[in-house]
């Protein structure tokens, strides 16, 4: 069965057309979390929040009873505070623990906000050097 999704101005795409290849950084993250002892879920990571909005995460990791949402942004630019706030909002909406963001580099404001809100920021270098 092919599911059709309406996108923009009446243009529709099949579910197969929307599937993007998985980023190598996501594969690195999965390896990192498994070595750290987490259970990793990389499928069915869209959850409806208490606000009624569907929230998407790249990964859901679990260690003990703590479940955390993970966003992986494989961008060639600095990740700003707005992205961290969006991750924090999505995580709170679906009642997950302190979220984790993985990226190349983070702005000073993003680091400051993450520090106050107990959001983990992991760089590509950190998870890549973990063997």
Question: What is the topology?
Answer:
Elements: E1 4-7, E2 11-14, H1 15-18, H2 24-35, E3 39-41, E4 46-48, E5 54-56, E6 59-63, E7 66-79, H3 81-93, E8 97-106, H4 108-117, E9 120-123, H5 124-129
Parallel strand pairs: 7-8, 8-9
Antiparallel strand pairs: 1-2, 3-6, 4-5, 6-7
Helix pairs in contact: 3-4
How would you characterize this protein structure?
The chain has 131 residues and is of the alpha/beta class. It has one domain (20-129): 3-Layer(aba) Sandwich (Trna Endonuclease, Chain: A, domain 1). Helix content is 34%, strand content 38%. It contains 5 helices and 9 strands. It has helices at 15-18, 24-35, 81-93, 108-117, 124-129, and strands at residues 4-7, 11-14, 39-41, 46-48, 54-56, 59-63, 66-79, 97-106, 120-123. A hairpin with a 2-residue loop joins β6 and β7. The radius of gyration is 16 Å and the shape is globular. The termini are far apart. The relative contact order is 0.15. The model is unreliable at 1-17 (pLDDT under 50).
Alpha-carbon distance between the termini?
41 Å
| Spatial order of the strands forming the largest sheet | 3-6-7-8-9
Strand percentage lies at 35-45%
Number of alpha- plus pi-helical segments: 5
User: How does CATH name the architecture?
Assistant: 3-Layer(aba) Sandwich
Structural Rg: 16 Å
CATH top level is Alpha Beta
Largest sheet: 5 strands, mixed
CATH topology: Trna Endonuclease, Chain: A, domain 1
**Unreliable stretches:** 1-17
pLDDT averaged residue by residue: 86
Helix amount: 25-40%
The sequence of SSEs as H and E is: EEHHEEEEEHEHEH
Count every beta strand, where a strand is a DSSP E run of 2 or more residues.
Answer: 9
